[in-house]
Amino acid sequence: MSEARASVVSDDGMRPSPGGELQMDVALGLEGLRKTFGEKVAVERVDLAVPAGSFFGLVGPNGAGKTTTLSMATGLLRPDAGRVTVRGTDLWADPVTAKSLLGVLPDGVRLFDRLTGLQLVVHAGMLHRLPRTTARERAEALLRALDLEADANTFVADYSAGMTKKIALACALVHAPRLLVLDEPFEAVDPVSAASIRAILADYVGTGGTVVVSSHVMDLVERMCDHVAVLAAGRVLAAGTVDEVRGGASLEDRFVELVGGRRSGEGLEWLHSS
């Protein structure tokens, strides 16, 4: 009689190897990613390993390469060099399998905005091969959770910026992906809705999902994420748990120290009140 054995993953995303030592269970792996636009190097040899079950923040100044990196990580942009794996599946070698595991909220998301909110989320679910009835049930539940139920039958073209962000998040969630990659998910979202989204994402991670989120708000990342990477000029300057990266300081202070570029108010004395 054979004995069934389960692979055990600990809270920090580690699992035992056949030899007994712990090794990281990687939800998203980026290896040597590089992207140029003409003579401009947008991303230069980025290596990152996002642990399964983590809430991973990607932070950096404007122009750091965050959106380009996430676009390559989700199959929206082909890298000049490097490799992306989603739960061990090579994204570019087997894009159908890899993308079925992904939920993506890209920067500057374009939606079929002549559909109603409910129609759009149902459509997204059916694109992921959900039966129509299942897609509708999930869409209705997501609209309730994101406080969009009253606008379920409103055309997305008539949504505000914050509502559009929330309906795009619902589309990313409807097929219950293993990994969520969200580019600035809280931008233009009101504080009450932001709190609801954070609660949904925390529950998702608590049940084994993995979230990668980019944000400019250091305090939010520090409170929400357990892992973080600092990106600047297309390179990873630091990566690890939030405590490891901040090194006893606040994440914002550590970020400024790593990235540099803080400017004083010298020359603006004319702004001072007399």
UniProtKB/TrEMBL annotation:
GO molecular-function terms, A-Z: ATP binding
Stored Pfam families: ABC_tran
Family matches, as CDD domains: ABC_DR_subfamily_A (cd03230)
Keyword Metal-binding: no
Keywords annotated in UniProt: Antibiotic resistance, ATP-binding, Nucleotide-binding, Transport
Membrane topology: Peripheral membrane protein
Name this polypeptide is given: ABC transporter ATP-binding protein
Positions of the UniProt region annotated as Disordered: 1-21
Domain of life: Bacteria
Record-annotated ABC transporter domain positions: 28-258
Chief location bin: membrane
Location of this chain's protein in the cell: Cell membrane
Species annotation: Flavimobilis rhizosphaerae
